[in-house]
Design goal:
There is one protein chain. The protein is about 35% helix and about 15% strand. By secondary structure, it is α/β, with parallel strands linked by helices. The chain is globular. It starts with a strand and ends with a helix. The structure holds N-{4-[(3-aminopropyl)amino]butyl}acetamide and zinc ion (ZN).
């Protein structure tokens, strides 16, 4: 295969969260629009990317993954934000943004006012709803759906340049810069087309709590993840290795929490273990949560991986010989992000 099909959406360029609230302070948001330009530029220079924009409607599969009350909350708050956030609440140059402030301290509590609803459906203060967030998140998921459709037609590979990312979004909660779980939506599409088993391999620096949560009680979807230990990194509450799945899903969830500073060779040992589990599962399709915040230069990272390593990782996935859709997750070192993505795709491509 000489070229890899790529799907992206112009809508991703409209998504501009300004601040994340970290330790009570507003900080510049790490999940920037420059991430997309960095990737697109490297893809265009690579000569092996067949770049497409999508016009797929992913909503039916989004609705299979996420609760309707959650989607309504996201939709309403992004479309009515002009009424919800007043001019008087904004500093000069500040865009309208909705953040939570009070969180339910157990899961049976009712949320009957707007502040309670925010705490109910938002699990951190890093992931604001902006004007149009619902639409851009849907388009991001549509990129993953377009990739899934291609695999269903027999393509061996596809890459969804999804933004915003997805793997922290759970059935009824947004967080970690994620609103809709793009990978889970792609999995549902693949399942709907007749796949018996789908495996997810997540190599973003952070644990994909959303994807784990969505498939935790299912035996037809394997979730494997390599990530910085929750002892040191977001999402802090999940990602331990004793989280193995529930009910029918027992044994179909595998976490590899890893220490700060891990480098290529050591990391690769865990990649081999996780990909061994994927191969044993004999899935019809593989969906990869491809995050590049594991790179040594990442501003919010913890690992020491090099650009060359992503090519090696791509090759290891290619060697499984399972049709694979890679979906963009994190990666915040915008200078090298595009190069890292193309190194990975180069490895996948077998050229
Ligand atoms: N000020 C993804 O990589 N922690 N999400 C931010 C730094 C949140 C990462 C703290 C990290 C979320 C998709
Ligand atoms: Zn991440």
């Amino acid at each position: 295969m000489a070229e890899i099909p790529v799907f992206y959406s112009e809508a991703s360029l409209r998504h501009k969260p300004q601040f994340e609230i970290f330790r009570g302070q507003k900080e510049p948001h790490a999940e920037t629009v420059e991430r997309v330009s960095s990737i697109l530029e490297a893809l265009r220079n690579s000569g092996f990317a067949n770049i497409n924009t999508t016009s797929v409607n992913g909503l039916p599969w989004v609705e299979q993954v996420h609760d309707s009350a959650y989607l309504n909350f996201l939709k309403k708050n992004s479309s009515d934000i002009d009424k919800i956030v007043g001019d008087n609440e904004l500093a000069p140059g500040e865009e309208r943004a909705i953040y939570p402030s009070a969180f339910p301290y157990n899961s049976s509590l009712r949320a009957t006012n707007p502040i309670a609803e925010r705490g109910r459906y938002m699990f951190d203060t890093y992931t604001p709803i902006m004007s149009g967030t619902y639409d851009v998140a849907l388009e991001s998921a549509a990129c993953a759906v377009a990739g899934a459709e291609l695999l269903e037609q027999g393509a061996p590979l596809a890459y969804a340049l999804s933004r915003p990312p997805g793997h922290h979004a759970d059935k009824d909660k947004m967080g970690g810069y994620c609103y809709i779980n793009n990978v889970a939506v792609a999995v549902e599409h693949l399942k709907g087309s007749g796949a018996e088993r789908v495996a997810v391999f997540d190599f973003d620096l952070h644990h994909g709590n959303g994807t784990q949560g969505i498939f935790y009680d299912r035996s037809d979807v394997l979730y494997t993840s390599l990530h910085a230990s929750p002892e040191i990194k977001f999402p802090f509450f999940t990602g331990y290795d004793d989280e193995r799945g529930d009910g029918k899903g027992a044994g179909a969830n595998h976490n590899f929490p890893l220490p700060e500073g891990i480098s290529d060779d050591e990391y690769d040992k865990y990649v081999k273990k996780a990909l061994g589990l994927v191969a044993d599962f004999k899935p019809d399709f593989l969906v990869v949560s491809a995050g590049f915040d594991t790179h040594r230069d990442d501003p919010i990272g913890a690992f020491n991986l090099t650009t060359n390593y992503y090519q090696q990782l791509g090759r290891a996935i290619r060697d499984l010989k399972i049709p694979a859709l890679s979906v963009q997750e994190g990666g915040y070192a915008t200078k090298v992000l595009g190069t890292n993505v193309t190194a990975y795709l180069d490895g996948l491509l077998n050229r």
